[in-house]
């Protein structure tokens, strides 16, 4: 990432500007919008905002994967206005500028968060699930399918992760679907009937 772009992004953190981040040079219309939580030479933390102005979780990028950031355009202004009109707030998930990807993964594993992983330049989600084990070189994920069912375990090389997201509406929905399938959820439901 060039120095000028890095400085602009750091300034956007200070001014709480809504930005659009682009990482896929093959699909130049595809971006994630939101407020930058922090920018470091290694990672960028985005408080994501949906196209309809709702708080939509968090996204972590490798700084070097970002090739373009849009600031203060009509789309960013529209989303900021919708976010304000809907009285949206991201729940408190204070990032620390010194954290590494490993530290984030460790925190998400401890909190049993549903996480989405992307690889390469694509924004498409390649793997979703909960982190079950972590080592300095890799992460073990219990995968969930689109219906919240367990879909086996997978091992991921940490160096291949290009994008990580959590607490979005999609991840929260998968977590709810998965929880509804556990025996304790069924027992609680039967007790309430």
Number of helices: 5
DSSP summary, beta strand count: 10
How many angstroms does the end-to-end distance come to?
A: 57 Å
State Rg: 17 Å
Biggest sheet, spatial arrangement of strands? 5-1-2-3-4-10-6-7-8-9
* CATH topology category name of the largest domain: SH3 type barrels
Shape: globular
Structural class: alpha+beta
Pick out the low-confidence regions: none
* Strand/helix succession: HEEEEEHHEEEEEHH
What is the CATH C-level name of the largest domain?
Answer: Mainly Beta
What is the arithmetic mean of pLDDT? 88
Total number of domains: 2
Helix proportion range: 25-40%
Strand content: 35-45%
Q: What can be said about the biggest beta sheet?
A: 10 strands, antiparallel
CATH architecture of the largest domain: Roll
Describe the protein's architecture and organization.
Helices cover 30% and strands 35% of the residues. With 193 residues, it is an alpha+beta fold. A hairpin with a 2-residue loop joins strand 7 and strand 8.
Topology readout:
Elements: H1 3-15, E1 18-22, E2 32-39, E3 43-49, E4 55-62, E5 68-71, H2 74-85, H3 101-110, E6 114-119, E7 127-135, E8 138-144, E9 150-157, E10 161-166, H4 169-180, H5 183-192
Antiparallel strand pairs: 1-2, 1-5, 2-3, 3-4, 4-10, 6-7, 6-10, 7-8, 8-9
């Amino acid at each position: 990432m060039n120095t000028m772009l890095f400085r602009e992004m750091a300034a956007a953190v200070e001014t709480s500007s809504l930005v659009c981040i682009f990482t896929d040079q093959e699909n130049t219309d595809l971006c994630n919008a939101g407020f930058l939580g922090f920018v470091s030479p290694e990672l960028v933390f985005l408080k994501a905002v949906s196209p309809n102005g709702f708080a939509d979780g968090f996204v972590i990028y490798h700084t070097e994967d970002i090739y373009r950031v849009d600031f203060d355009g009509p789309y960013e202004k529209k989303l900021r206005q919708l976010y304000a009109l809907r009285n949206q707030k991201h729940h408190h998930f204070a990032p620390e500028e010194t954290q590494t990807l490993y530290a984030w993964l460790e925190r998400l594993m401890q909190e049993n968060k549903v996480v989405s992983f992307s690889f390469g330049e694509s924004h498409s989600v390649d793997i979703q699930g909960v982190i079950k084990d972590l080592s300095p070189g890799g992460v073990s994920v219990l995968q969930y399918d689109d219906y919240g069912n367990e879909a086996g375990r997978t091992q991921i090389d940490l160096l291949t992760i290009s994008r990580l997201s959590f607490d979005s509406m999609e991840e929260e929905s998968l977590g709810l679907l998965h929880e509804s399938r556990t025996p304790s959820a069924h027992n609680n439901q039967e007790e309430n009937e």
